[in-house]
Hints:
By secondary structure, the chain is of the alpha/beta class. Helices cover 31% and strands 25% of the residues. The chain has 19 helices and 26 strands. The strands form five sheets. The protein has a nine-stranded mixed sheet, sandwiched between helices. Strands 7-6-5-3-4-8-9-19 form an eight-stranded mixed sheet, sandwiched between helices. A four-stranded antiparallel sheet has the order 17-18-20-21. β20 (421-429) and β21 (435-440) form a beta hairpin. α2 (47-63) packs across α3 (80-91) and α7 packs across α9 (243-249). The radius of gyration is 24 Å and the shape is globular.
Amino acid sequence: MTSIYDQDLPMTEANFAAMTPLSFIERAALVYPDQLAVVHGELRQTWSQTYRRCRQLGSALQQLGVGKNDTVAVMLPNTPPMVEAHFGVAMAGAVLNALNTRLDPEAIAFMLDHGEAKVILVDAEFAPVMAKALALRQATSPVTVVDVEDVVFDGPAASIGSMTYEALLATGDPEFAWAYPASEWDAIALNYTSGTTGNPKGVVYHHRGATTNAISNILEWDMPKHAVYLWTLPMFHCNGWCFPWTLAARAAVNVCLRKVDAQLIFELMRAHGVTHYCGAPIVQSMLVNAPDAMKVGVPSGVKAMVAGAAPPASMIEGMEAMGFDLTHTYGLTEVYGPATACAKHAVWDQADIGERARLNARQGVRYHLERDVRVLDPETMQPVPWDGETMGEIMFKGNIVMKGYLKNPKATQEALAGGWFHSGDLAVQYPDGYIKIKDRSKDIIISGGENISSIEVEDVLYRHPAVLAAAVVAKPDPKWGETPCAFVELKAGAEVSAAEIVAHCKSHLANFKVPKAVEFGELPKTSTGKIQKFELRKRVGSTVAIDV
């Protein structure tokens, strides 16, 4: 029998609209048109001006033939066009693919082909790499390349496009009547992971997930309107953890930063009264260890968010000394960046630094608008005991989980099996529900906030003619959190130095993926010949580093 609450109560345009972060910038421009939105060098741009430029971008892209579900790739640093791309591309109905600016041409070429990019926006700094990537493309479909100029960039001018970004915008309508997505399940962004095997996987985000994670960011930080946010976190990384959309919701200020530099960061904090920023452990450590003279006059109470390796006691102490409030988060590309946070309790402040470090080192509890995060037994899919000892796999479900992997149904089905997203990270759950990672089942190395596939590095090592066997594991590093450490077994009679091995890797890999240490010797193996990586991790202290 039909319920009275289902009778004559239809969902209509009047009482339902798809969730989309595009609504945030629309409101910011309407309510706070003259409020500062973007700071970059001498540039000062209001929310009404930013909204008009985003609409121009959406309109101009449509005139180039870009439409629903087309891919627009961008290779940009943290500059105003990168902020605008997070709205303008979606206004055209398209999908934003923010490329990692640190990747090699081969990886970029694969992503352009796999994502079927129709338009590419390229900053002058990355034009040489992009030119090589375009030459390596296998696809024959046409692609429009747009040069993005930046007066702050002091490097050599490089042009590979058919037009400039400003010329593109000039063809667009600042009053462009963009439309809400037909469904909040529509794709809004494509982000590539550093997979453990083969080519990287394309993670597809939907409008609902982008909206809910952006709101969760606000709630986790209690972020006030008109907050001042410094872009130390790359916007190509999980769409800047969804913060471009978060800041629009709060009509906040985007303080752009092309390159992470401690002195410049402190200068910008002082000049603009920065209240919030995010960064990998390496960024936080760089600020903590900067000379005291640099820190003079820095605003007190700045809220910092760190993800990746757990913050050590020295980092927490250093942040407290600067008057910064550090929040530890955890997530993956597949869950829009941070999807858990180590929510702090007032009583923790009374504990000594060692105990505070132990408590804050946990990956925490679910984000506000995530449905659930649990540590489950991957075999039975049942929760492990909340005893802080029994290990299982971290799994997510709810709004802040990807649509799936682009053109990879098998990987999508495996990742979402049983109604949960399988992170591949092994952890325990404490009696208070807080989660702590104990190991990584995917052999991913997280260095400076960037994921490195150990298998990718091993494949390169095996290409060296002197190498018989190779294995790469994470080695704890005080600056980067972790760095790749290569263990190499040479062929009989072969001779090669560590420097030669590193040079070989540099010729095939992006610099941040190159091993920072090389050790020679026979590798430990099982009776079937499988390399025992856990033994190698013990040698470099990886398991100890994760446990602290």
